[in-house]
Amino acid sequence: MFRRLHFLLPNASLAQSVVNECLSLGVSSQNIHTHAEHDYPIDSLRPATLNQARDRARQLEDYFWVGNLILFAVFTILFISAMLAAYYVLALICVAVMLLSFAAGNFFIRHVPHTHLNQFKDALSHNELLMMIDVPDETAAEIENSIHRHHPAAVEAGSTWTIKHADI
User: Fold this and answer.
1) Closest by alpha carbon to 27, among 126, 166, 164?
2) d(CA 1, CA 19)
3) Which in 8, 18, 50, 88 has the greatest CB count within 10 A?
4) Nearest CA to 153 among 127, 128, 116?
5) 164 lies in a domain?
6) Residue 75 — φ and ψ, nearest 5°?
């Protein structure tokens, strides 16, 4: 799994400077994308893909979250039915599935970073640029610190999960 770092930048020249910094740190140019609203010119910067611009990762998270809730509800109903019918083994299996569902949701909420495009609507509407940089999880802090140190106008805007070479 990769980490997608988000930075808000006031203009394309600063964004190009951040790209150069990332390239010097070993980030592939294919892992750096820039998103802008209203056809704002991003010069030679690599534009965000359609899935990135539509925040496909958030859609996937929403699908998994709703699926987890449905799974929990179904097994709760099945548990109640099993208890009423005195099928205690089935009731125990239902409890196990519900606990796993709860643990998975709890882990996701506590340990998986969440930053999505809807958080940047105001900044993007004021013609700021959103740079998305996909990096291995173990180098994310180093790259984020380097960009912050060398480009103080680049606003750290959080991070989220992504999959290596996936267009989400």
Assistant:
1) 164
2) 22
3) 18
4) 128
5) no
6) -75, -25
In a domain, 168, yes or no: no
What local confidence, expressed as pLDDT, does residue 58 receive?
80
Per-residue exposure over 31-65, b if at least 16 CB sit within 10 Å of its own CB, e if not: bbbbbbbeeeebeebeebeeebbebbbbeebeeee
- Give CA separation, 47 vs 35, 52, 129, 167, in Å: 6, 10, 10, 12
**Residue 167 lies inside a defined structural domain of this protein:** no
Question: Residue 137's pLDDT band (boundaries 50, 70, 90)?
Answer: confident
pTM score, whole prediction: 0.73
Residue 163 lies in a domain: no
Question: Per-residue confidence at 46, pLDDT binned at 50, 70, 90?
Answer: confident
